[in-house]
Amino acid sequence: MNAGKSAPPQNLTIIIIEDNRYVREAMHAVLQSAAGFEVLGAFESCELAFATDKIADCDAVLMDIGLPGMSGIDGVRYLNARYPDLAIIMCTVYDDDENIFDALCAGAVGYLLKKVAPEDLLKAIRDAVGGGSPMTPNIARKVIKHFQKPATTHLNQDDELTEREIEVLHLLAHGKSYAAIGGELFLSVDGVRYHIRHIYEKLQVNSRTQAIAKGLKERLIQPPR
Question: 0.70 cut: is pTM over it?
């Protein structure tokens, strides 16, 4: 009798986006041979991955940064806007502050270097799908050190953001639309645009991504979680 018998746990389903064939095949082999994991597809570019319907069925994406065509960071931004619950983990050779914070701002929940050991890769995917933020230790150290530095600002006093502008920037960093920001802060969409225009002017930037990156570097806001 099967009554009362629990169903076997489902595999975690993964998409790999990595342009280096040997790295891509190595990741595929590690994941496909591990109990509890299933690779739905391995692609050399975001464009090829996004042209399939497999993204909607996966639990996590392993994403490189230096990809042909759309960059990995732009790929994260694209996925985060469409699948906000998807666990996206960067797996890259880049360990500089700019790429780390740009990836986290775009919506990545983890950041690993490609030299990660197979067992650590498997653990990181489980952690990310379970709600964690796995990072290679030296990447985590960089993030911690950034926020342990004494709070300093390079802005002139006249260019300091107001409390409301910081609230708007914080919500921008969490991927909120103008309408959603207005709803949370009881502002009209035109009012949100007004504040964002002043944020851009004060931070001397021209885009949402630049504003978020500078807000993080100036420690005006915390990275999204």
Answer: no
